[in-house]
Amino acid sequence: MTDGRRRIQAWIALTAWLFVAFSAARPLSAEAYREEAVKAAFLHRFTGYVDWPAEALGGDAFRITVLGAPELAAELGRVLEGRKVKGLPVAIATSLPRSGPHPHLLYVGRGYAGDLGRLLAQHRSHPMLVVTDQPQGLEKGGAINFLLVDQRLRFEVSLEPVQAAGLTMSSQLLAVAVRVLDARSGTGAR
Amino acid sequence: MRIRPRDLRWVALAGFAGISTTVAASQATDLTALSLEELSNLQVTSVSKSAELLWLAPASIYVITHDDLVRAGVTSLPEALRLAPNLQVTQYTASNFVAGARGFAGAPDAQNFSNKLLILIDGRSVYSPLYSGVYLDAQDVLLDDVERIEVISGAGATLWGANAMHGVINVITRPAYLSDGVIAHAVVGDQRREVAARYGRRVGDSLSWRAYAKTFERDANVRLEDAPGEDDWHKVQGGFRLDWGRGDGNFTLQGDAYRGREDEPGIDGPRIEGANVLGRWQQQGRWADWQVQAYYDRTRRAQPVGGVAFHLDTGDVEAQARFTAGAHRIVAGAGLRVHDFDITNGVGLSFIPPDRTLVQANVFVQDTWTLTTRADLTLGIKAERDGYGGWHALPDARFAYRLGAATMAWVAASRAVRSPTPFDRDVVERVDGAVFLAGNPDFRAEQVDAVELGIRTQVREQLSMSMSLFANHYDDLRTVELTPVTLLPLLWDNLMRGETYGAEAWAKWQVTPAWRLSPGVRLLQKHLRFDAAAVQLLDENQSGNDPRWQAMLQSSLQLTRALNLELQLRHVDTLPSPRLPSYQELDANLLWRASPSLDVALTGTNLLDRLHREYPPPNGNRIRRGVMAQLRWHPQP
């Protein structure tokens, strides 16, 4: 066998190993996750700890609207593809419908440009869970607001909009929140 | 290298072992299976919060993340900037790096510098008002504490002011509460030695601080053939940052101090030293978010023995407010900057007068109007007074249209200027006692009218792309002219104009979960012409000796869970005048995360050639191939 052929064999072997190794290895930053991926998992989890009135779930889809966060909308589409929420297939939109049924879950991200307080005031009594990622998201009417604490994604809860929307929220969810705004006093309970 | 057939069995075994760990890994990373508590405890990459906002920005933005810096193994700010495909970074000597965007990145033979790009470090402008441009040798940060570097190419004068003609680089360090504990970093290579240490801690709920110190020395390169380049240098730097937060407001206080010595062929090079301190208050109010910032920066650069010495003190205060009114997002602000300089004139280079106080002031307003859920229109204008009393209007208009959730297109039109400096107006250069070149008191600002068309899209989860096309019209570009009749001294004037056209494009392609390829390319066509009065002593390239194109390919490959191989190949086309042939170079970094608290890296720079040049002599030395080992220890606090 000539040296040239050996060298070719060695290269083939090396290439094969590299190919197998890199197609198999997991990303280096295994301990750090993309914020969108974690948020999408949170939103999916939240739906398990919140109950909507039965009549609100009568349609043909569980509707989620994502405002001001196109990357999260895309991520949710991927995560929830083929899954059911509250027994319904999921439909994701990136704008609020001008007419017709309201979304069950409204997410308003940092990229939302409008007046959040006014938007939420208009939709206050609809059976809609409002999750925000905004400074003072709860003060502006959100039920759950994401916070980035110590490079970890945490959330805070305001009970008043939950009740106004006719939703019920499990205490297990409240137990994990970093802050819970009470319905009556409006003060931090934790 | 010899591999016998029986070795191939080990290759196959290694492969299978890899596959079995993948299956386990992919189950573990299905986040939807995690509980709320588990999700709350995951560390998230916080860049995406800003990335989300940047994704919506109608401009050509490339973000170098903290992770990118670690994986590439870069140890200095100019080398970090090489990771951005929309920048042109040229190394002249060991200490002299120049960054440019969209051309005009300097022609030192014609005493023209890369003066159309702004660099800000945590909101502090490091652009020198004396000669226009950035002394990158004086600017450094502890890269271990950098959160991200945003590179915005294209005119950005409305928000960032004069001299942001071709772009802005924002170096953003982490808040102190994200840098808890110790980092010790050592670099040992054939041409550089470097140590850095940082300590940070929290005090109670609301206060955190960190402090760092670093020092390095770099060996000389090679000049002509094998003559020593004598461009060795060393530097010491230290600094701190303190963050204090209370409810809706937070306060940052930070500062740095540095001192360095550089050498140049045949002469002792400059001694540099400086210090800065910056305070910033950010407040989220009921109606508006406020920010007030002030900084003081002192810098000194002295050529020993009869050389020129610059002393510059800068004070800056600025305030801005952001608020939303209906469909309008408005940001408005004002700033005042005072440069007080004192130059010890040298034999060859002097300034008349040698000391001045330059006062710059600006007010601006920008409105982003949400027309529909898909379309935004941004209109803004800044009025800025330059240090010599001239006022400039710097308007900008941008229209952004989102085609679906993952694609955005924009068009923009802007005007920006490069304001006159003492080097344009007051300089006197002598050769053998006779005045050879003189500043021109009538020198005006260089001006650009820029239009841009861009698109950014996430094609699939694994593939994202960004592309922008630009056309710039320039007026009043600086030229060197003759004095009528006597010919000498040479004079600066504004007798060139013209157009440039270009494109920038880059992509990130996650080929497999463990392998990412990131290609990038820049194209530039310049059509410059002289006014009738110009004597054309030097050709059009006096405004910038730029390559017509440049390309790069980054490969980030995960060899095993703890081992990452980063390769960066770049091609830079021929420089026209003075001519330098095109070149290719390769940087590589093998990073081994030996334990959660220890990283070991083997880094190679400019691997393809023992010596290569990025700029023709006499200004550019032959840069040597470099190899170094890095150790980074960061025990979990």
In short:
The complex is a heterodimer of chains A (190) and B (637). Chain A is of the alpha/beta class and 190 residues long.
Question: Which key features would you list for this structure?
Answer:
heterodimer; A: 190 residues; alpha/beta; Rossmann fold; eight-stranded mixed beta sheet; two-stranded antiparallel sheet; 6 helices; 35% helix; disordered C terminus; B: 637 residues; 7 helices; 59% strand; disordered N terminus
How are the secondary structure elements laid out?
The complex is a heterodimer of chains A (190) and B (637).
Chain A (H helix, E strand, L loop, with lengths): L2 H22 L7 E3 H15 E2 L10 E6 L2 H10 L4 E2 L2 E6 L11 E4 L7 H7 L6 E4 L11 E6 L2 E7 H6 L3 E2 L1 H6 L2 E3 L9
Parallel strand pairs in A: 3-5, 3-6, 6-7, 7-8, 9-11
Antiparallel strand pairs in A: 2-10, 4-5, 8-9
Helix pairs in contact in A: 2-3
Chain B lengths: L4 H24 L7 H5 L2 E3 L1 H10 L3 E6 H7 L4 H5 L6 E4 L5 E4 L16 E5 L2 E2 L1 E2 L4 E2 L11 E8 L3 H4 L6 E7 L7 E9 L2 E12 L3 E12 L14 E14 L2 E16 L2 E18 L3 E15 L6 E17 L2 E17 L4 E3 L3 E16 L4 E11 L5 E12 L4 E12 L3 H4 L1 E5 L2 E5 L7 E15 L2 E21 L3 E26 L2 E16 L18 E12 L2 E10 L2 E2 L2 E2 L2 E13 L2 E8 L5 E3 L8 E3 L1 E8 L4
Parallel strand pairs in B: 5-10, 26-29
Antiparallel strand pairs in B: 2-9, 3-4, 5-6, 7-8, 9-10, 11-12, 11-39, 12-13, 13-14, 14-15, 15-16, 16-17, 17-18, 18-19, 19-21, 20-25, 21-22, 22-23, 23-24, 24-27, 25-26, 27-28, 28-29, 29-30, 30-31, 31-32, 32-35, 33-34, 35-36, 36-39, 37-38
Averaging pLDDT over every residue of chain B, what do you get? 88
User: What is CATH's topology name of chain A?
Assistant: Rossmann fold
Instruction: Please provide the count of β strands of chain B.
Output: 39
Largest sheet of chain A: 8 strands, mixed
Q: How many helices of chain A in DSSP terms?
A: 6
The shape of chain A, in one word, is elongated
List low-confidence stretches of chain B.
Answer: 1-29, 46-52
Q: Please give the CATH class of chain A.
A: Alpha Beta
Helix and strand composition category of chain A: alpha/beta
* Average pLDDT level of chain A: 80
Radius of gyration of chain B: 25 Å
For the termini of chain B, the CA-CA separation is: 44 Å
Assembly annotation: heterodimer
Q: Please describe the biggest sheet of chain B, giving its number of strands, its sense, and whether it closes into a barrel.
A: 22 strands, antiparallel, barrel
Helix count of chain B equals: 7
Instruction: List SSEs of chain A in N-to-C order.
Output: HEHEEHEEEHEEEHEHE
Gyration radius over CA of chain A = 22 Å
> Using CB atoms under 8 Å apart, which protein chain pair has the greatest interface?
A-B, 65 and 71 residues
Quick one: overall form of chain B?
globular
